[in-house]
Amino acid sequence: MKFIIAVCLFCAALYSAEPSAFGAGNLENETPYGLTESEKYILKNKQRLENIKKETRMQDGKVESIRERMDGLQTVIEGLSVKSHQNRLALEALSGELSNDGKNSLKAKVDQNSDDIQKLKEALQGFSELLDTIHNNYLRKDDYNRLVDEVNDLKMSLSNTLKKQSKRSGTSLSSMSNSTVAQKAQDFFNKKYYTDAIKYYEYLIKKNYKPAYAYYMIGEMNFRRNKYKEALSYFKESASRYDKAKYMPTLMLHSAISMEKMGDRDKAHSFYTALVAKYPNSKAAKEAEKRMR
Predict the structure, then answer these.
(1) What is the rounded distance in angstroms from the CA atom of residue 277 to the CA atom of residue 293?
(2) CA distance 161 to 36
(3) 164-193 pLDDT, tens per residue?
């Protein structure tokens, strides 16, 4: 088992790759996303080590519990051994006062007690050796601590790399053309890396590069996250900047759904009606008709 763990750690370090930008590829997240194959491999080995950690603690607890019981049995057996010896001495002292049958009967009982005590001692010794064997087959505490330190070092190194990558990504926006930033923002959106995509679209808004579309996209991501109030705010800003965009049917549909989710059914119905009237042949209009039924 020690060999397997060592190999897992070695392979994890060997195959570690450059992490993704921002939250993607962050193994410290409770639910990591956007992992490369190498990062998935590292996460798998991290989880295996956590399982081994739990098993080792349970095993140590069981072994210690059994050892405590064995110590108690050892004390009882030693007490019986002393008592048996005292009985033997008493038998010798009384040998002159007992008949032959009485002496033979008592001697047989004392001998049987001695044999039983010896068998208990041998069984206890064998059990102790078995426990040592079981315990040695698991990771020793020193080896386990060493492996944990190595994994923690690996995690720290990966975390530092992630932070450096995040800083480089953030500062490199200004060195890219606006069209390149827009493409990367769209790529993040397509991969559902919404946190990263929002940062890129916010940058484009500051640069006044196609702000209507950037507002719409941020609204879409808030809508998908069920943040309907925020989504409405961005949809409204987008429409106020350019209301002839090809995405307007979707913007109106999602605005109406957001209003409905927030409890404003009358205003939502008005939007559904306006959508059907203005874009009757759109997919969004068909969806609006279904929701008005």
Answers:
(1) 16
(2) 15
(3) 555 544 457 888 999 999 999 999 999 999
CA dist 159 and 211 (Å) reads 34
Residue 18 backbone zone (phi > 0: left; psi -120 to 50: alpha; other: beta): beta
Which CATH number is associated with domain 176-292? 1.25.40.10
Q: Distance between CA atoms of 25 and 188, rounded to whole angstroms?
A: 13
Tokens 């190999």, residue? 7
CA torsion 76-81-83-86 (nearest 10°) is -160
* Residue at 187: amino acid letter: D
At 244-272, the pLDDT tens digits run: 999 999 999 999 999 999 999 999 999 99
* pTM exceeding the 0.85 threshold for the entire prediction: no
Q: Residues 133-138: contacts with CB within 8 Å, 24+ apart? A: 134/59, 134/63, 135/59, 135/60, 135/63, 137/1, 138/1, 138/55, 138/56, 138/59, 138/60
Coil, helix or strand at residue 118: helix
User: How many DSSP H helices and E strands does the chain contain?
Assistant: 11, 0
Q: What 8-state DSSP symbol labels residue 222?
A: H
Question: Long-range contact list for 106-114, CB < 8 A, 24+ apart?
Answer: 110/84, 113/80, 113/84, 113/87, 114/84, 114/88
- Structural domain boundaries of the chain? 2-160, 176-292
DSSP string, 166-221: HHHHHHHGGGS-HHHHHHHHHHHHHTT-HHHHHHHHHHHHHTTSSHHHHHHHHHHH
Helices 2-14, 141-172: crossing angle, 10 deg rounding = 10
